[in-house]
Design a protein that fits this description.
Helix 6 packs across helix 8, helix 11 packs antiparallel against helix 18 and helix 28 crosses helix 31. It contains 31 helices and 31 strands. It is elongated, with a radius of gyration of 67 Å. The longest helix has 110 residues. It is of the alpha+beta class. The chain is 47% helix and 16% strand. It binds adenosine-5'-diphosphate and magnesium ion. The site of adenosine-5'-diphosphate has 20 residues, from helix 4 and strand 5.
């Protein structure tokens, strides 16, 4: 459904009048009452034409929500109730769509809500203009510049807890699509006197308190500060804390904002260092010291603070100290140094603090500008927002108020010029006759102040530059001479006798009749403040600072660029910047927000009529309404006008076909509105008197009620008829559906019964056919079978004679033969190598050849073994015979055997005939030596062993001393009956001798040898060949030996591994000898 367009107007649900142009009757009282009435109903905004009047509610109202932004977005100015968003929207749209640069001028006195208004305008524009990452960053930077500037430029005053102490003009730049590109901020005249002194109940700039409350201990230490406000002379004590303001939290907000705006960490640090230095400057105190020549000289009381400042700023302490005690005046190559007295020293200190802070502030503005500068060179559209201090009347008004009020005069001037100009231009554009109206033009006051020859500012400058003694009094005297005749200048001492007896006018003052009221200015301090003097010694000291930021703030301190010309005075600087601002504003389309402060207590719901009356008066609101109404009170384009009132006339209701203007003409004729009450412009109708408009509105209201009744009537009729029609239609639909349903059901019943009957009949028929077919098929199969058997017998009978018996057996044998033949032929090719140890043998091809295959393998092996043996020489044969003998004797019986297999049997290990030591031994033996080897003979008594040469000859066994070769015992082989040994892996053996033989007198021998297997084998063989008897070899782990008369049991036990493989013997008792084997 398309969104319903609700056409509303400012005139709907109006409290009082939303646009004061419509106020009837118009006088001061009705204006104030209207504002009050609206204020009491939370309507803080009221229009005078396109000017928005805003009354500070001093509490947050729910009228700035995102929904409200949406409401006001792209709506006509007069469509909704008055709101600052409507003005912002109007300005933004005419900037975007009509390419007109805009400026938004916000005026009003301190605390009236100017700064808040400027922020609201900016946030509205930010909310409705383009979106996207880049655009959002620009917006964020523009919005975040506010907290930074507010921290450094705002302070609590008696009028406002967050009073801007500087004027601000910000140009926001947009591209052709209306997306923000960047901005430029200009600042005007920071109230720097606040740095060193604040009036009662007021504070210094926020940043000092924020820094002390919000900085970490570490940061404070670094800046050489203490948290206690009372430590600092520049911070007045009576109102250091502001209700509802969290300085520490704000400090974090400011640092965060600085980061978003693009300040580098070191820049933030430098800024805070300067702030700290300013604070600490206030703590430097001086004491007088008399000098010989009678002059007073000042000395710094406590140099500690000075030292810390110097450390913080990188200034040479002696330089700064000197700058506080001397003043050097340079004139035409001449340098004169004079000492400063205590008062002058304090003056110098404060001047330095003020200058340092105000220059820091300007630097901040420039730095922010650098960040928010538009990055492109494309043509930009500009919306300027001016938030400048409002008109100020204090008890004591000084130079600052003079300057501020001058600025407000200029703004009023531009207001008058532009509104009237705009009004006049509109009449000309619309071709309406215009008669000039009278209003107070404040150009004359501006001239009094800014005239180049005899304006107050010019004269102040003249005084300041004049040689000779200059004081505020001489300045006043001069004023009295020059301005005496001016209508708006009042002074007791002037030549004009009007004020001679005016006691409200003190002697040291002058009074100006501003457009907004009379203001009495104290002349004291004018000259000084205008001079804004900072001794050159101080600026030079600052220029010498190691701190880059401070150095850059005092370029005039550079001795290379010394300039003897005085710097421009504060007054002339301000005048120039105001002139630039005015020029800038004149090129733009102005939008006005005039802020009004309802009470002096910063309290909600209080509307002090006296106070408002004063503001209404000096803001010239009444005149504003009058000017606006001088011609025509109300104007509206033809289309919306016709749209709003067309129901009042038959011809235009409900639709008018022709052009809108003709429609409005017809309408007004019909309503018989007197001709002098309105005029037709080119695109708008102009209504002279609000009464006429209200009459139209009343008629419209009446007519709307009639129309509402009419609409109601028609709607009700329509609703009943449509309801009836709907019911009838529904009834038909239901009936049709039901009939259809009933018929469907009946049809389905018949159909299913038919199907059942049908299927029964079909089934019966089919079964009958099936039976017949089955019978037929069986008959056919029987006939075929009989025929087949018959043919079979016939054929077999015919062919039997062709087959022979036993053919199968022949074929079988033949096949078998062929298989065996093939087997042998194949075996021939597959025979393995001739090596007897080759275990390979081809696999068997057929199971029935299994035994033949195995037999063949055995035969082949025997054959190749024989082949191998045939190659042996006699000697080799002997060796193998011996080895074979050993195998038969010991294999699988003695554990030592396997290790002997690989060792060749050498027999005579000891070569007796070659060794001269054994010559005697050799000579004693004539027979062939079969074994000559050193063995261990075991002592029968204690089991210890001694080495002996063991010799075996054909007939004897001999034992000889190893060293001397002397024969110890000789046993004929016939006397050897048995050799015993263990089954283990040891070389221990016993040689048993025949009982009663000569050799047996000492008993059987026990030996141990590494070559036990060889020895036993050779002994066996030799005995066999000599005695034809088999030597008994007993292998057992327990056997008996005969020692003389005793039978001793030799028992083998598992010993420890200590002696390696050598068995150790131990005679346990005379029945037991234990041999420990490994
Ligand atoms: N539209 C508003 N809604 C709520 N409070 C407001 C509004 N305008 C101003 N105020 C209150 O008034 C105080 C002073 O406003 P401010 O804009 O700082 O005054 P000015 O800049 O004119 O001196 C603000 O701190 C705020 O508390
Ligand atoms: Mg402000």
């Amino acid at each position: 459904m398309a969104k319903m367009e609700v056409k509303t107007s400012l005139l709907d649900n109006m409290i009082g009048v939303g646009d004061m142009v419509l106020l009837e009757p118009l006088n001061e009282e009705t204006v104030i009452n209207n504002l009050k009435k609206r204020f009491d109903h939370n309507e803080i905004y009221t229009y005078i034409g396109s000017v928005v009047i805003s009354v500070n509610p001093y509490r947050s109202l729910p009228i700035y929500s995102p929904e409200k932004v949406e409401d006001y977005r792209n709506r006509n100015f007069y469509e909704l109730s008055p709101h600052i968003f409507a003005l912002s929207d109007e300005a933004y749209r005419s900037l975007r769509d009509q390419d007109k640069d805009q400026c938004i001028l916000i005026t009003g006195e301190s605390g009236a809500g100017k700064t808040e208004a400027s922020k609201l305008v900016m946030s509205y524009v930010a909310a409705v203009c383009g979106k996207g990452a880049e655009v959002n960053q620009v917006k964020e930077q523009l919005l975040q510049s506010n907290p930074v500037l507010e921290a450094f430029g705002n302070a609590k005053t008696v009028r406002n807890d967050n009073s801007s102490r500087f004027g601000k003009y910000m140009d926001i730049e947009f591209d052709f699509k209306g997306d923000p590109l960047g901005g430029v901020i200009s600042n005007y005249l920071l109230e720097k006197s606040r740095v060193v002194k604040q009036p009662r109940g007021e504070r210094n700039f926020h940043v000092f308190y924020q820094l002390l409350s919000g900085a970490s201990e570490e940061l404070l230490n670094k800046l050489k500060l203490e948290r206690d406000f009372s430590r600092y002379n520049y911070l007045s004590l009576d109102s250091a804390k502001v209700n509802g303001v969290d300085d520490a939290a704000n400090f974090r907000t400011v640092r965060n904002a600085m980061q978003i705006v693009g300040f580098m960490d070191h820049e933030v640090e430098s800024v805070l260092e300067v702030v700290a230095a300013v604070l600490k400057l206030g703590n430097i105190e001086f004491k007088p010291e008399s000098r010989v020549n009678g002059l007073d000289e000042s000395k710094i009381k406590d140099k500690n603070e000075l030292k810390e400042i110097c450390e913080l700023t990188g200034i040479d302490q002696s330089v700064l100290e000197r700058a506080f005690s001397f003043r050097t005046v340079e004139a035409k190559q001449e340098k004169v140094s004079t000492t400063l007295n205590v008062a002058q020293a304090y003056y110098a200190r404060d001047a330095l603090a003020k200058n340092l802070y105000s220059r820091l502030f300007s630097w901040l503005v420039n730095r922010i500008n650098e960040s928010i500068k538009a990055q492109t060179k494309v043509r930009k559209k500009v919306m300027g927002v001016l938030d400048i201090y409002g008109f100020e009347i204090f008890e004591d008004n000084s130079f600052e108020q003079f300057i501020i009020n001058y600025c407000n005069e200029k703004l009023q001037q531009i207001f008058i010029e532009l509104t009237l100009k705009e009004e006049q231009e509109e009449y000309i554009r619309e071709d309406i006759e215009w008669t000039h109206i009278e209003y107070f033009n404040n150009a004359i006051i501006c001239d009094l102040i800014e005239n180049n020859t005899n304006g107050i500012l010019a004269m102040l400058d003249e005084e300041c530059l004049r040689p000779g003694t200059v004081t505020d009094e001489t300045f006043l005297e001069k004023l009295n001479q020059v301005c005496a005749t001016h209508q708006h200048f009042e002074s007791r001492m002037s030549k004009c006798s009007r004020f001679l007896n005016d006691t409200s006018l003190p002697h040291s003052c002058f009074r100006i009749q501003h457009y907004a009221g009379k203001v009495l200015y104290q002349v004291e301090g004018f000259v000084d403040k205008n001079n804004d003097l900072l001794y050159r010694d101080l600026s030079q000291a600052m220029w010498k600072a190691g701190h880059a930021l401070i150095k850059s703030l005092f370029p005039e301190g550079n001795p290379a660029k010394i300039n003897l010309k005085r710097p421009p005075t504060a007054g002339s600087q301000f005048k120039a910047s105001v002139a630039t601002l005015m020029k800038n504003l004149q090129t733009k389309n102005p939008n006005y927000i005039r802020c009004i402060k309802p009470n002096d207590k910063k309290a909600a719901h209080i509307f002090n009529e006296g106070l408002v009356c004063h503001q209404v008066r000096y803001l010239g609101l009444l005149e504003n309404v009058r000017v606006r109404r001088a011609g025509y009170a109300f104007r509206q384009a033809y289309e919306p006008c016709l749209e709003r009132y067309k129901m009042l006339c038959k011809q235009t209701w409900p639709h008018w076909k022709g052009p809108a203007r003709a429609g409005v003409e017809v309408l007004f004729n019909e309503l018989e509105i007197p001709v002098e009450e309105y005029s037709f412009g080119r695109s708008k109708i102009f209504i002279r008197n609000p009464r006429t408009l209200f009459k139209l509105e009343d008629l419209r209201k009446q007519r709307l009620e009639d129309l509402a009744t009419l609409i109601q009537k028609i709607y009700r009729g329509w609703k009943c008829r449509t309801h009836f029609l709907l019911m009838r239609k529904s009834q038909i639909v239901i009936a049709a559906w039901y009939r259809r349903y009933a018929q469907q059901k009946r049809y389905q019943q018949i159909k299913s019964s038919t199907l059942v009957i049908q299927s029964y009949i079909r089934g019966w028929k089919a079964r009958k056919i099936l039976r017949e077919l089955k019978h037929q098929k069986r008959c056919e199969e029987a006939a075929t079978t009989i025929a087949a058997y018959w043919h079979g017998t016939q054929v077999r009978r015919e062919y039997r004679k062709f087959f022979r018996a036993n053919a199968g057996k022949k074929i079988y044998e033949f096949t078998l033969q062929r298989i065996v033949q093939n087997y042998f032929l194949e075996m021939k090719n597959k025979v393995p190598s001739l090596s007897p140890i080759d275990k390979n043998w081809p696999s068997r091809p057929y199971l029935f050849l299994d035994s033949a295959h195995k037999e063949l393998k055995r035969i082949f092996h025997l054959w190749r073994c024989k082949k191998y043996r045939d190659q042996f020489t006699d000697q080799q044969k002997l060796i193998y015979e011996e080895k074979l003998e050993a195998s038969e004797l010991f294999k699988d019986k003695k554990a030592l055997y396997p290790s002997s297999v690989g060792q060749p049997f050498q027999g005579p290990y000891l070569e007796i005939n070659k060794n001269p030591k054994y010559k005697k031994l050799k000579d004693a033996i004539e027979e062939k030596i079969i074994i000559a080897e050193v063995v261990n003979k075991i002592n029968r008594a204690n089991g210890k062993s001694t080495s002996r040469i063991f010799l075996l000859t054909n007939n004897n066994l001999l034992l000889a001393d190893q060293k001397s070769g002397q024969i110890k015992s000789e046993v004929p082989l016939v006397d050897v009956t048995k050799v015993s040994m263990s089954s283990q892996n040891d070389g221990f053996f016993a040689v048993h001798l025949k009982e009663g033989s000569e050799a047996a007198s000492k008993g059987d021998f026990l030996f141990s040898s590494d070559h036990l297997i060889e020895m036993a084998t050779k002994l066996y063989r030799t005995t066999l060949s000599q005695t034809k008897q088999k030597l008994n070899i007993e292998i057992s782990d327990e056997f008996l030996v005969q020692f003389r008369q005793d039978k001793v049991c030799v028992k083998f036990i598992q010993g420890n591994q200590k002696n390696g493989s050598v068995p150790t013997c131990k005679r346990k008792n005379n029945r037991l000898l234990e041999v420990a084997v490994p």
